[in-house]
Design a protein that fits this description.
Length: about 230
């Protein structure tokens, strides 16, 4: 299946901005980690991808993975990150979608649905925050409101992004990523798969949909371990 690309002229500007930032991120990311990531996505646009969240470095992963497939996507992040002048500018430039917690998530869900209606792919981390190891014994933490609402209100196909190794690059509680050189760099591995279609009764119920998606994501995360030998930068 060919990589996802813009399908109409009204997405060209977003594609170029996302690609420019994706190239910048790829340059810096190669110096912080070794990478085991896909070259082609398993689903064409529009689609919904759900990934686990264990480090602030996961934002870098979003840029790096999807631009490696030449896909410009709408990535969902917590609204509070838009409050910082520089981070907010970068996020808005890249077309990120702000999402709040709880019932306030409805506004972010509506923005995601609008993006899907335009033929764009949406990527989100359902946990809504960086999950420390003590809160993810099964590999992932509990999902917030967003993924269940989005799955129930859209018929776009669902995909999973199982991420490991990012908390070795940028552990929770550190202000900046760790800088290691050469073979000392940790390996970040991202497994991207299509999720088998959920039964209508499951997908139509936001709580059931969220539970099914997170269970499938946890299974992929626990079986996706970085291969620390023989990896090349990509």
């Amino acid at each position: 299946m060919p990589p996802m690309r813009p399908a109409s002229s009204h997405r060209t500007g977003h594609h170029r901005r996302f690609g420019f930032l994706g190239i910048l991120v790829r340059f810096s990311a190669a110096r912080l980690a070794r990478w085991d990531i896909p070259d082609v996505l398993p689903l064409p646009a529009p689609a919904i991808f759900a990934g686990n969240h264990r480090s602030l470095f996961d934002i870098v992963v979003g840029f790096h993975v999807f631009w490696n497939c030449r896909a410009s996507v709408r990535i969902v992040v917590a609204k509070r990150y838009f409050d910082h002048w520089l981070a907010g500018w970068l996020l808005r430039t890249a077309g990120f979608i702000p999402m709040e917690a709880g019932r306030a998530a409805l506004g972010g869900v509506k923005a995601c649905l609008a993006a899907l209606d335009r033929g764009e792919t949406v990527v989100l981390m359902p946990e809504g925050r960086v999950i420390p190891p003590t809160e993810r014994p099964d590999g992932v933490g509990p999902a917030g409101e967003g993924i269940g609402l989005l799955a129930a209100r859209s018929d776009a196909p669902l995909g999973l992004c199982a991420i490991t190794g990012t908390d070795d690059v940028w552990p929770l509680g550190r202000r900046f990523p760790r800088l290691r050189l050469g073979s000392a760099r940790p390996t970040v591995r991202v497994l991207v798969e299509a999720l088998a279609p959920l039964e209508p009764g499951v997908r139509g119920d936001r709580a059931c949909a969220a539970t099914a998606i997170m269970a499938a994501l946890a299974e992929r995360v626990t079986t996706t371990q970085p291969n620390r030998e023989g990896q090349e930068d990509r």
